[in-house]
Prior knowledge:
Structural class: mainly alpha
Oligomer: single chain
Number of strands: 2
Number of helices: 23
Number of domains: 1
Distance between the termini: 8 Å
Strand order of the largest sheet: 1-2
Low-confidence stretches: 145-159
Helix content: 55-70%
Order of helices and strands: HHHHHHHHHHHHHHHHHHEEHHHHH
Mean pLDDT: 87
Amino acid sequence: MQFAMAFKIIGVLLILFSTAMLPSLFLSLAAKDGIESAFATGLATTLFAGVMLWLPTRHLSRDLNIRDGFLVTALFWIVLGLFGAIPLWLSPGLELSPVAAIFESISGLTTTGATVITGLDTLPQSILLYRQLLQWLGGIGIIVLAVAILPMLGIGGMQLYRAESAGPSKDRKLTPRITSTAKALFGIYLLLTIACTASYFAAGMSAFDAVCHAFSTVAIGGFSTHDASLGYYEQNRVLLVSSVFMLLSAVNFGLHFIALQRRNARVYARDSETAFFITVIALATVVVCCLLLTTETLDFEDSIIHGLFQTISIATTTGFTTQDFSVWPLFLPILLLILSFMGGCVGSTGGGMKAMRILLIFRQGMRELRQLLHPNAVIPLKLDARRVQTEVISAVWSFFAVYMFCFVMIWLALLATDLDFISAFSAVVATMNNLGPGLGEVADHYGAVSEPGKLILCLAMLMGRLEVFTLLVLFTPAFWRH
């Protein structure tokens, strides 16, 4: 294990992350809101820690192996969450405990969107912007961004990319070099953010709100600058703009790159995962809208608009709200939460298990049924006209089993903190799937969760963002064995 190289990388990334506090610091100084000292302290502390880790190891230049990649990836998200909490903890007016500040920071960085803060409408813009920036940086993945510059420091980045990237097709690169791949991903991410900002502004948002909500929309995060989330605007065109960009951000960014490169939108139609993802959301939207109409929960127009928006928001694990879906009739709240297990596509900013895994599990189930009818037949499992290797299917089933096992264990641990059954269940669904809003006591915010409960949910958010294995592998004896 190359601990010196790990410290060097974490140091460099902390130095980069400290710059994320600059916009809020400048905004605080300009507005004279009294929070500038919190951001200055957070920036100085993060920068100092990064420099102290980087200086002793600055002359080292070695390639990372896969173990180093897992270690750096997991450690950095944990360290980043701790340092990112400093401005929130020190900000006067928020009155957050250290644990609550860490919860808010990790929720932002993992693009979960679960919050312990209320009264957003009265908070200074510097704090609001900082929360949105945490989500925007977390959406693309700090580590995927950083591999674009690591080669210049003499550090190979492919191991980091594999540890951070999600899904069974993680080894497929857009370009021959990992640096170019990272730049391509960032370019698409930035382009979507700019387009989303312009669309929100045209739909009626202020310039500040348009930028902030574009950050959390493209990151599929769900943080808002208002307690009522996007329901604050009461404008259908805002919800439609948000729905479009949530869907775009939940699709594999590699497909966006290929579509732009070839100037051909047919690549989306030919991709099995995207087709499956859109089909599931379309069917769920029809069910939700029809039930809202038949139960007369909302009028016709609101049933269509809010049913569409809320389904997309929850299914993509964004977590924006316009209605309190937890009080919707029949099974609708549970249906929406279950949709979040699918989340976005592989290579997107969405959470959940990813649509690719759900699709492979479904097709494997269909294959087993056909095999029962024709026991002697050779029935290969194919995806996009390519045969899926047996080890890929095995890995998907292993991931599903471990994911659900961890889900149950975290759920039981949360119940032990005296949270009620429904609130605990929905809180684990919302945090492990990086969704945000839940049911019961966590429908609006997570302030009612105890301090130990918040720490448990921090673990759930990290496991969801790092796709379970990246974090769990650190606890296996084989990982540390030479």
